[in-house]
# Entry
Amino acid sequence: MACDPGRVLIFDTTLRDGEQSPGASLNLEEKLAIAQQLARLGVDIIEAGFPFASAGDFNAVQRIAASVGSPEGPVICGLARAAAVDIKACADAVAPAARRRIHTFIATSDIHLEHKLRKSRSEVLAITAEMVEYARSLVDDVEFSCEDAGRSDPEFMYQVIAAAIEAGATTINIPDTVGYATPAEFGDLIAGIDAHVPNINQAVISVHGHNDLGLAVANFLEAVKNGARQLECTINGIGERAGNASLEELVMALHVRRSYFNPFLGRPAESVEPLTGVRTEEITKTSRLVSNLTGMVVQPNKAIVGANAFAHESGIHQDGVLKNRLTYEIIDARTVGLSDNRISLGKLSGRSAFRARLEELGYNLERQDLDDAFSRFKELADRKREITDRDLEAIVSEQVQQNDEAIYTLKRVQVSCGTGLQPTATVSLITADGAELTEAAIGTGPVDAVCQALNHLAQVPNELVEFSIKSVTEGIDAMGDVTIRLRHQGVLYSGHAADTDIVVAAAQAFVNALNRLLAGSHSQPLHPQKTPLPQLGELPLHQRPRV
Ligand code: KIV
Ligand code: ZN
# Structure
């Protein structure tokens, strides 16, 4: 991929590294919705998944490549370990995209070589050259990563990088896999690569990093100053453990402080040209979509997208902002699309107005989904006077979550509770083959009673590890937004739903989480970094790529 040295490419890995966060797994519809929104956001590359992980992952990458990978759209990338079977599966999955990339990786730190790969440095060097060359025989755009670069011997890494570029890698990615580096060190690492790898000018230098010490974004900004031109990040910073570098923080730092960064990219300090191709006004919507669908709640004080990021509580601050916003604000909330929460529709709005507003918001639902979302809207309009864009987003994200393969559909929920009463719930579910099941249970409160009744029906052991509720908008008639996480055999599954009745929202969120649990408990996808490199011929049939 040709890279303008005065621009920073944004590589989004929400659907790959982000989805590796515990409990963040997404179904096909959800992945497609996020990929479409990432394209609207204007990211340069979407890492859509790890195709070799499972048939479902392969299918999702292929569908994203087909529907989002248009010639004007982002590059669609898949991850592959440095193994021929992974690389072949990846090439097949990204094939429908007009612009496609294989991202292959192998660890370069001694600790990984000794304990994980059990390979020598010369073996890693040979595998790198062979696998990059193989990937390059399948696609023109190949990214190579030195996993655990942050703890690797730089001299050895220079050799590996030179070999990867020699074999055809067009992007070299430097991951701080365990979030160990500090900003000055990470900047020096990138400067060292730039100075010591003889053929580095034939590739784009990329960085990838985890937030274990809360330094990922700072590390990336130092890397940009030292020559990195691609940043691998996720929406809301979701990802393994403490997460990945957060896309919105990076993009807004490069935007707000561009006069500081411009000279490092060879531009005059006063240049107002954007440093990334991201449409910042899409940030808030993207953040909400990812949070709703993954069940990963955004902390209120999170930079750029937290609920408090633009709130001024203190009287002194409010006074200053009223006199001149610049006294306490470095970002106009509209720049990230925040203040756009207008009242969009009401009780009398028809189907075409509903569809038109959804399209303006960037959602193109298929006919059946549109019909279902419209009837949800009508029900809501009967109960809530004004329907805002936030309400519409909540309806749509819930629609996307209730996928066609759902094992259970919530038909009815009824509770009785109050002073002196034992909270009791009766729930009815419809199974995939159309049968109706009903159960009643008592609990410590109405939500507990609903969950008990649903558990009696589904009969899968699970532990409720998170229940959170927040209101979608202000006002007494606001919808309650519920996120639930269930643990089953050590794996987390999340569910999300919104309704003006919080008990109904809780029941629906619980059913959504149960459906994910039931779909996911049959097969756990392979983890790209924690599964040993396969040897051809050793793979069980079900793990061979669908070629
Ligand atoms: O953190 C990491 O090292 C990764 C690689 C696979 C790029 O996610
Ligand atoms: Zn990672």
